[in-house]
User: Fold this.
Amino acid sequence: MSNTVMSKQDALVSCPAPGETAGNVNSADSVSAAGKTTSAAGTAPEKKTISDKKLLEVKNICVQFGSHRHPFTAVDDVSFDIYQGETFGLVGESGSGKTTIGRAIIRINPITKGEILFDGKRISGKLSREEDQQVTRDIQMIFQDPMSSLNERAKVGYIVAEGLYAPGNRYTEEERNEKVKKALLDVGLLPEFASRFPHEFSGGQRQRIGIARALVMDPKFIVADEPISALDVSIRAQVLNLMSRLQKERGLTYLFIAHDLSVVRFICDRIAVIHKGKIVELSESEELFRHPLHPYTKALLSAIPQPDPEVEKHKELLVYDPSMHDYSIDKPVFEEILPGHFVYGNKKELDGYRKEVGLSSDT
Ligand SMILES: Nc1ncnc2c1ncn2[C@@H]1O[C@H](COP(=O)(O)OP(=O)(O)OP(=O)(O)O)[C@@H](O)[C@H]1O
Ligand SMILES: [Mg+2]
Assistant:
């Protein structure tokens, strides 16, 4: 089936719930398959709340691959905190270590240095069986490619319920079915879809199935690894709106991974920019767009297409060349330049960044 037909189908059977706007899709989207109008009219969207409690603390982690003799450091001394209710963006080019960090958080990739705390407790390294089962429920992941991340041979009902069969969960079949039904409805799909196979769905619907699979575990934290990159442009907004509605309703906290800054601008509260396994800049989203300081962030920003064709035509595309940094004597550190705005650089560079934002170099 062609993409166009599939996206239309997606628009017809995926029903944005109250408070979730359909984005740039056709009007069929505001009518659910059950024929009920589900427009946002009349229902005030719940407000997102970010607490000052650190839900996730990533402290100086390193992840190495390769042999003992020829180790390859994919993640190099990375630290950041994510607050409860926050959406934290991690942005960088292909191969920069984003997925590796996500997988370290869900404990697939062991870390070689540092530690990860969740809800104040260490989750890296060895855990007791009970702790392990609790963290497995609390932290879920949504994957980039909904086409390859779902088991083609299993029915949607089983795919969504899979985590509920894990040790430590004792649900009756009835309870499992009820949870699956609720998760499907929560992501705008019909409970009847449980008896179908993944290939019967469009990309957007499959990503909703992937989200339902995470939600069914009632997680506190979700690692969303490029959740919209593989989707048709027309349905990306729907998936983002869905994620943001679920966050407000359930008080979820997200790590949102992307390789393009334009995607994370509106969904993320803070953004970390990563290059070759190192975070080079971290700040609140709007501040990052207002005062990009590291040359790699500037290069990523210059790659965002501008809506005005005249501006786009005359835009200077910046290319980042890491050899511009001379760290042989003056060693780099990760330092706070403005409140909450950190940049990686040596003394000379950091002085330059301070000047750029109007501060004198000794403040
Ligand atoms: N299991 C593995 N074994 C060996 N090397 C790996 C493994 N997983 C990742 N790498 C390497 O680690 C580096 C970071 O990979 P990672 O998948 O985290 O990048 P990424 O930022 O997610 O890229 P993309 O945007 O393409 O998804 C890459 O050089 C990759 O080849
Ligand atoms: Mg990746």
Summary: The chain has two domains: 3-53+131-273, 274-356.
